[in-house]
Every structure is written in structure tokens, then in C-alpha cells.
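Quick one, probably user error.
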């Protein structure tokens, strides 16, 4: 596994951390990986190793306000900005490993983002399919009305104001070592801005309303015991999405981070089988 690191400066002068893992020999496909809220792409190194072992390259980034990228912790100004840097990472993947199919893979907040990217960018897609795991189409616990009203007001008045995201860390995985590593990781943070919060809420609703228009093959996955995201909204998306394009896995008993559960090998093998059938 060969790790390469690159910085990308967007039109606003913000610096994003890109990195990619290349197989030792041939490459039959590339994955562009989009991580979740408060974390960073290095938490997926074992995922990259798995796919590299099966001749698939993995390209990843740290969102603005996350990991090694610039910006106030937890603040991403818009999904338009996200679409721009996802496109930049796809371009990097195409230029680095030529003439292989590209799969866009997002987890949690990233799962929301890859669904939105695909639905809102249909005329310019350069990907073969999409993997979305535990997509944050809504939060698992209802937002108190007062808190939601405050977020709407501050989204207009002070969009970069950040608050604790309230993530239930214990529901990430059944593996206690994963939980402890998350808590000890200096690049992980608990913040979310009012703008990012409202973008996630609004885009989650928009994605659901456009589910029947999803244009590409989709591997959609959810843990049965995940209450970090709104499971019913994920199931609703699966029901509305085109049946001939959508593969939905509901993993019995699993928590939010399917790729970090003790059963992660089975989860990743299901993704691999889907990719190999697609390409």
C-alpha cells in the first residue's frame, strides 16, 4: 500500500488535505472516499488497506474544518463548496489512475454528501456508482424545537458559530478499542457550525424528495442498531430509489460505523462484491 499526500487550494484560498492509497501492483478501480462529521480520512486507513489488497485505489480528503484541512473546526460554508472539492478529488483520481471506473463512497455526513453530489450534479458525473453507509439524512434523536429555531436564526446571523454536535460516541461501534481511539484522536473534534447543521438538515430532506431520480447504481447500508442517524429516513430513501439501481443492506445488530464493527470484514466484502459486479 503506497500512501500519497497532496494539498488542494480551492478558489477561496482554503487548503484541503487530500491523500490516497495505491495498490502495490495493478489497479482495477478507484474509490473516492468522503468521511463523516468531526472525523478525518485517516480513520479509514484499514478500509483503504482492504481495498488495496483487492487492487482498488482509495482517494480521500479531510473536509474543511476537519482533520488536516484548514478552516474553523466543524464549519463547512455550503454543500456547493463540498461539491467543488469532491469534483476536485474525482479529477485527481482520474488523473492518477487512468482508465478505471470510479466509485464514490461516503459515510454518515459523507453519506449524505455523496447522495447530494450525485443527485445535484447529474450532467457532470464521472463516476460508475455510489456507496453510502449510514447516511445522515436526519438525526437519530429529534431536535428540540427551540434548538432548531435558534439554529435557523444563527444560520442567517452567524453561520460560522459552532456548537457541540452531541454525537453519541458509544453508538459508533461495538468495539471498545474503536471508541477509545476516537476519544483519544487529536484530529477528531465534537463541533458543528449552525450553517453546516442546517445544510445537513435541508439537504437531507431534498435528497429524500429526489430519491426516485437517483441516476447510478447505489450500495446503501445501515446498521439496525444505529440511532446516530434517522434510520427511518434511510429506509424511506431505499424504498423510493430506483429498484433496478439500488442495493440496500440492513446489517442486523450493528451500530453506526459499519466499517469499524467487529463484523467489518463481512461489510467490506459485501461492498467489494458489489463493486466487482459493477465494474
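Nope, works fine. Designed sequence:
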Amino acid at each position: 500500500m503506497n500512501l500519497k499526500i497532496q494539498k488542494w487550494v480551492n478558489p477561496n484560498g482554503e487548503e484541503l488535505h487530500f491523500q490516497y492509497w495505491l495498490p502495490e501492483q495493478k489497479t482495477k478501480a478507484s474509490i473516492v472516499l468522503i468521511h463523516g462529521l468531526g472525523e478525518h480520512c485517516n480513520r479509514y486507513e484499514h478500509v483503504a488497506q482492504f481495498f488495496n489488497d483487492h487492487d482498488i485505489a482509495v482517494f480521500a480528503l479531510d473536509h474543511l474544518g476537519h482533520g488536516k484541512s484548514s478552516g474553523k473546526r466543524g464549519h463547512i460554508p455550503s454543500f456547493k463548496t463540498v461539491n467543488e472539492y469532491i469534483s476536485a478529488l474525482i479529477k485527481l483520481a482520474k488523473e492518477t489512475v487512468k482508465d478505471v471506473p470510479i466509485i464514490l463512497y461516503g459515510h454518515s455526513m459523507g453519506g449524505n454528501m455523496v447522495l447530494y453530489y450525485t443527485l445535484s450534479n447529474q450532467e457532470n458525473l464521472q463516476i460508475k456508482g455510489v456507496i453510502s453507509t449510514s447516511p445522515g439524512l436526519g438525526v437519530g434523536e429529534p431536535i428540540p424545537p427551540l434548538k432548531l429555531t435558534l439554529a435557523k436564526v444563527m444560520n442567517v446571523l452567524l453561520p460560522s458559530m459552532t456548537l457541540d454536535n452531541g454525537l453519541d460516541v458509544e453508538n459508533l461501534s461495538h468495539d471498545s478499542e474503536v471508541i477509545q481511539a476516537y476519544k483519544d484522536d487529536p484530529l477528531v473534534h465534537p463541533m458543528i457550525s449552525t450553517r453546516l447543521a442546517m445544510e445537513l438538515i435541508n439537504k437531507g430532506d431534498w435528497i429524500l424528495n429526489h430519491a426516485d431520480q437517483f441516476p447510478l447504481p447505489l450500495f446503501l447500508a445501515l446498521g439496525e442498531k444505529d440511532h446516530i442517524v434517522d434510520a427511518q429516513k434511510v429506509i424511506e430513501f431505499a424504498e423510493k430509489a430506483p429498484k433496478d439501481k439500488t442495493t440496500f443492506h440492513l446489517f442486523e445488530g450493528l451500530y453506526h460505523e459499519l466499517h469499524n464493527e467487529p463484523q467489518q470484514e463481512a461489510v467490506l466484502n459485501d461492498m467489494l462484491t458489489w463493486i466487482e459486479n459493477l465494474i
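The longest strand covers residues 2-9.
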